[in-house]
C-alpha cells in the first residue's frame, strides 16, 4: 500500500507539473488551472509556494532556451549602445528599458497585495469568473493586426503592458493573455507582442525565484517531496517548451479565438459545478 501511495504522489506531482508547464505559455491561466485541478483531485498537500515557484522556474528555463538568440542580441546591443552610443543598437537598448519599465508595476503590486491575492482571490469560485474575463479579452482582440515592430514601442506602451501583467497576478487572469492583449491593443504586431510578453516574463519569474529561494530551502516538505518536486519541475520545463513553440505558430495564424472559447467553457463549468 505504501508503494502504491508513493507512486500516486509521483503521478500527481508530475501531472500537475505537465499541466502548469503546458498552460503557462498559452493564454488560459496556469495558476487558475492548478487551483482547479487541486480541487478536482483533492491534492491538498500541494499548497505551498515552493511547488509553484519550482514549476514556474521550469517554464522560465524553457522561455530562456526558446528566446536565447533574442536575449543575446538585446544584451550585446544594449552594452554596445551604452559604451559606444551606436545608433544601430539604440532600438534594442530601448527595448530593454521598456521591459524594465513594464516590470515595475508587477513588482510593486505583487509585494503589496501578495498575501491578499493568495488568501482571498485564489479560490475556485473567483477563478471561474476571471477565466471568463480572460476569454472576453482574447475575444476582443481576436482580429487585431497591429503595425508596431520592436523599434516602434513607446514608454506608454510598456506601462500599459506592465499594468496588464499586474492584473494577471489574480489567478484565472492569464499572464501571457493579459500582456498579449494589452500589447495588441496598443498596436503591436502579433510577433512583437508575443516576444515582448515572454521577454517580460523573464525578469518577473527570475525575481520571484530569487526572492523565494529561502522559502524553498525552508519548506518542511522539501526532504520528503524532493523527488516529486524534481519530476514536476522537469515536466513543467518540457511541457512549457513545446507548448510555447506551438503557441508561437498559433499566434502566427491568428487563432486566439479558440483560447477565448476554451476560457468561456471552463469558466462556466467551474462556476456551475465547483
Question: How would you characterize the overall build of this protein?
Answer:
- The protein is an all-alpha fold and 274 residues long.
- It has one domain (2-273).
- 78% of the residues lie in helices and 0% in strands.
- The mean pLDDT is 88.
TL;DR of this structure?
With about 270 residues, this protein is mostly helical. It has helices spanning about 1-25, 30-40, 50-65, 70-85, 90-120, 125-140, 155-165, 175-185, 190-210, 215, 225-255, 255-274.
Overall pLDDT: 88
Which structural class fits the helix and strand makeup? Answer: mainly alpha
How many independent structural domains? 1
The largest sheet, given as strand count, sense and whether it forms a barrel, is: none
Low-confidence stretches are none
Task: Assign a percent range to the helix content.
Answer: over 70%
How many strands?
Answer: 0
Pfam families: BacA
Family: Belongs to the UppP family.
Subcellular location: Cell membrane
Organism: Virgibacillus salinus
